[in-house]
């Protein structure tokens, strides 16, 4: 052991001595103490050849660009396209009565104000945000990083997916780069930019915690979204801002947090948001296919609980599929003859085992197009044709 220590020490000392010789020769040459005789130059080159690792060992001072990390680069690139959405609406029928007498005839109505985030998706003035940010807003203004405040017009909003598009009268605006949310993977970097609690241009960093979190699983049953989950901090005011990957591409729209939880933020995949935005820009609304059933993925626990319901004439025997728990009156499902207790096992010849998959196939099928269902009813396989309609508002 002692011999090895001595050997390592001698090797290190030799390296330091050779390094000192090289540096001394280089410095002496630079200040003119040495001539450029061939023998000396050859000696310097020979030392470099023998100990190249010593020359390369000297650490260089990092440049400002090298000191900056990918978060800094992404922020500088994307932040100019991230905006603050300011909304207000009057509280009709609500007046602050004075201490004495009637309120003045010209008294102003109380205003409810709110702040959210958004980002420019088109240089000609199209801004993407959440539907709940602009819900019931009478006035919308958009604040840019350079201090400009522009009036905004809501082109359309879709409460089902929580997506809205705002138009401002301007052009040549900085716009984001849209990524591909279908390629997002668990564990990759995630960067959120927005205005939490009205604090403009706030950046938080985390990772993608999970993908395809169905809305029902996180307590938002009225939405039809497979959320992306992240631990990048998303607070009130972040809603509508972009969630970015390490390349600065938008992969989702920050949308929801769960009260009382830490490190749980949810965002709408950008592929979904972009598809909805295009429809809002074109028509101002979005139509969602609807058949009118309440459904749940069939599991042993679900099967057991359903079969224990009193007065059920026939229990279910299937072990896989989508169990119909309830059916709306006068809905496409009711008109097609579907029944509570039916187990949907295939849609358009594609096997289904989760409610999320069925919902995706329903969206792909569209409105007023026949959809073929393979259903297990009382252990008998039957085919049912249903024609989805537009989801009632």
Describe the structure.
The chain is an alpha+beta fold. Among the domains are: 2-57, no CATH class; 177-283, Beta Barrel (Thrombin, subunit H); 289-390, Pdz3 Domain (Roll), CATH 2.30.42. 26% of the residues lie in helices and 32% in strands. The protein is built from 10 helices and 21 strands. It has helices spanning 2-30, 38-50, 52-57, 64-67, 70-78, 131-134, 270-283, 300-307, 332-336, 355-365, and strands at residues 82-90, 111-122, 126-129, 139-143, 149-158, 163-168, 177-178, 189-194, 202-214, 226-230, 242-244, 249-257, 265-269, 289-290, 293-297, 322-327, 343-347, 350-351, 371-377, 380-386, 389-390. The protein has a 6-stranded antiparallel β-barrel with strand order 1-2-3-6-5-4. Strand 19 (371-377) and strand 20 (380-386) form a beta hairpin. The longest helix has 29 residues, at 2-30. The radius of gyration is 32 Å and the shape is globular. The termini are far apart.
């Amino acid at each position: 052991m002692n011999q090895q220590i001595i050997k390592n020490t001698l090797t290190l000392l030799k390296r330091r001595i050779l390094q000192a010789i090289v540096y001394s020769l280089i410095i002496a040459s630079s200040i003119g103490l040495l001539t450029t005789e061939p023998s000396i130059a050859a000696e310097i080159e020979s030392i470099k050849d023998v100990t190249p690792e010593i020359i390369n060992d000297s650490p260089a001072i990092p440049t400002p660009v090298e000191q900056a990390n990918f978060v800094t680069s992404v922020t500088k690139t994307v932040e100019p396209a991230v905006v603050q959405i300011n909304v207000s609406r009057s509280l009709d029928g609500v007046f602050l009565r004075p201490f004495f007498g009637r309120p003045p005839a010209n008294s102003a109505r109380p205003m409810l104000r709110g702040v959210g985030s958004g980002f420019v998706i088109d240089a000609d003035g199209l801004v993407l945000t959440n539907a709940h940010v602009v819900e019931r807003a009478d006035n919308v203004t958009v604040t840019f990083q350079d201090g400009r405040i522009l009036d905004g017009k809501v082109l359309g909003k879709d409460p089902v997916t929580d997506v809205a598009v705002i138009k401002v009268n301007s052009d040549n605006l900085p716009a984001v780069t849209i990524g591909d949310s279908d390629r997002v993977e668990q564990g990759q970097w995630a960067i959120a930019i927005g205005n939490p609690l009205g604090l403009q241009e706030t950046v938080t960093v985390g990772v993608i915690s999970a993908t395809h979190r169905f809305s029902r699983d996180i307590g938002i049953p009225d939405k039809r979204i497979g959320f992306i989950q992240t631990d990048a901090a998303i607070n009130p005011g972040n809603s509508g801002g972009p969630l970015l990957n390490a390349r600065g591409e938008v992969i989702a729209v920050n949308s929801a947090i769960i009260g009382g939880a830490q490190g749980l933020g949810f965002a709408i995949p950008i592929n979904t948001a972009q598809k909805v935005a295009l429809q809002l820009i074109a028509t101002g609304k979005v139509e969602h296919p609807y058949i009118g059933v309440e459904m749940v993925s069939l599991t042993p626990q679900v099967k057991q609980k359903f079969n224990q319901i009193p007065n059920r004439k026939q229990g279910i025997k299937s072990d896989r599929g989508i169990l119909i728990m309830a059916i709306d009156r006068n809905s496409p499902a009711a008109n097609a003859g579907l029944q509570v207790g039916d187990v949907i096992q295939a849609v358009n010849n594609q096997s289904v085992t989760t409610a999320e998959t069925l919902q995706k196939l329903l969206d792909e099928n569209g409105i007023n197009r026949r959809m073929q269902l393979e259903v297990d009813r009382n252990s008998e396989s039957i085919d049912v044709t249903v024609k989805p309609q537009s989801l009632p508002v």
